[in-house]
UniProtKB/TrEMBL annotation:
It comes from Porphyridium purpureum. Residues 348-416 form the RING-Gid-type domain. This is Macrophage erythroblast attacher. One of its GO terms (cellular component) is GID complex. Its main location: cytoplasm. It is found in: Cytoplasm.
Length: 440
């Protein structure tokens, strides 16, 4: 369940973001209103108020009060919109809490009344007990339903990361997991990525302003790198005066706030004032390269994942790698003299393509106890299917030998292409000895 951290992190951050926006808007208007009311009360208590000369001041205060009332009415409309956004974020958070809670209810064997809201919860017509153990078959079915919901959520997340937003939205809607996936986050991210891909920093700067406090918490240098890139583009266009002015306004201030290690890059970028865009001198030629926009996109993705508590890889990729790695053994990649896989097992995913290619760079699984698999049948060899050593030293399962010897009384070793009588006609002959293997 540790992988489900982002499920609750993203809506929680969205809720806090809407709350801060609402508070900021209200505080600003309330402060203005209080100041005006203090001014109005001071005028009412002044000794000059009853005189005829104060009528002009009276009208001025009245006009200002009318304007303030109009502003408060506008704030009320804005407040309604903000409250709706907060409520939407709260509803999403509620659904996701129920989704996570549902898992523990199933595995711990008790239920709470609920409805199917896309979280894998039970239907409204289903009777559930507040406490007590569930029937094993019912528990397994409900766990399967929850896992199916999770699978759809993971698939949608992976498709979103691949940039297939329409397909992801369609799948989320059909699977009923719209409240469990962060489509809005990826759509916002897509605008920034598209803008950076076109060589424009506008959307990226907007994103930095919206997340200024959170970016500061993770010591992000993304905004400063954007400033450096804009300076490079001004210099590329030959606007040396504008580039110098831009550096004085933005980069000199940014240097006091940037992380260690950015000073050297700042000095190198400033040296571009002395180098033309067609220079071949490094590192200045690399600073003019268009590939720097791809670097900015990569940095933006990394910071975006950190802000929302998302993993850098999709959960689908993480889970597949973990599963494939747990099956990978050295025998899956052992080859004979002809280059063929020596310990090929038809039932092992990592012995077969395409998983063998996927597993090639992954670590081998760690097994405390040995696990033997029959080369012939592909089944596990254990106390119920004992491993038997042939006279030539190769090991196969007892069931495989019995199956081969059922008709002809002979067993065939596919590795050495030798034939042996099984069971041996002369048990006392050492050359025909079959031994059972015991695993410690």
């Amino acid at each position: 369940m540790e992988l489900e951290y982002a499920v609750l992190k993203v809506p929680s951050e969205a809720l806090m973001k809407h709350f801060r926006a609402s508070k900021k808007a209200v505080d600003k208007e309330v402060e203005s209103c209080v100041a005006l009311m203090n001014e109005y009360n001071a005028a009412l208590s002044a000794s000059t108020w009853p005189t005829a000369g104060s009528s002009q001041q009276h009208q001025l205060l009245k006009d200002r009060l009318d304007k303030q009332i109009a502003r408060l009415k506008t704030l009320k409309k804005k407040w309604v919109v903000l409250c709706q956004a907060e409520q939407k974020a709260l509803d999403v958070l509620r659904v996701r809490v129920q989704y996570v809670k549902r898992y523990f209810e199933i595995v711990e064997g008790y239920e709470e009344n609920g409805t199917n809201d896309g979280t894998g919860a039970a239907s409204a017509g289903e009777e559930m007990s507040d406490k007590g153990a569930c029937d094993p078959s019912t528990k397994a079915l409900r766990l399967l339903q929850w896992q199916k919901t999770r699978l759809y959520r993971i698939l949608v997340d992976h498709i979103l990361r691949e940039g297939l937003y329409s397909s992801a939205q369609k799948l989320a809607k059909e699977a009923g997991v719209e409240n469990l996936v962060d489509v809005d986050v990826f759509l916002t991210r897509a605008k920034v990525i598209e803008s950076l891909g076109a060589g424009d920093c506008t959307e990226a700067f907007k994103w930095c302003v919206e997340n200024k406090r959170r970016l500061a918490k993770i010591n992000s240098t993304f905004e400063f790198r954007l400033r450096l890139q804009e300076f490079v583009e001004l210099r590329r266009a030959g606007k040396i005066a504008e580039a110098t002015q831009y550096a004085r306004k933005h980069l000199s201030v940014g240097m006091t706030m940037s992380q260690d290690g950015m000073t050297t890059q700042f000095q190198t970028v400033m040296a571009l004032l002395a180098f033309e865009p067609d220079t071949r001198c490094e590192p200045y030629a690399s600073l003019y390269a268009k590939e720097r926009w791809k670097d900015l996109i990569a940095i933006f993705k990394n910071d975006s994942y950190m802000l929302h508590g998302l993993t850098h890889e999709s959960l689908l990729s993480i889970l597949i790698k973990a599963g494939v790695s747990s099956l990978k053994t050295r025998f899956c990649f052992a080859h004979d003299a002809d280059g063929d896989t020596f310990e090929y097992n038809v039932n092992c995913p990592t012995c077969n393509e395409p998983f063998q290619s996927l597993a090639r760079d992954l670590p081998f699984s760690h097994h405390v106890h040995s696990v033997l698999v029959c080369k012939i049948t592909g089944k596990l060899m254990n106390e119920h299917n004992a491993p038997i050593v042939l006279p030539n030293g190769n090991v196969y399962s007892e069931s495989a030998l019995e199956s081969m010897a059922k008709e002809s009384g002979m067993v065939f070793d596919p590795r050495t292409r030798e034939h042996f009588v099984y069971p041996p006609s002369n048990p006392n002959d050492p050359a025909a000895e079959f031994k059972r293997v015991f695993i410690m």
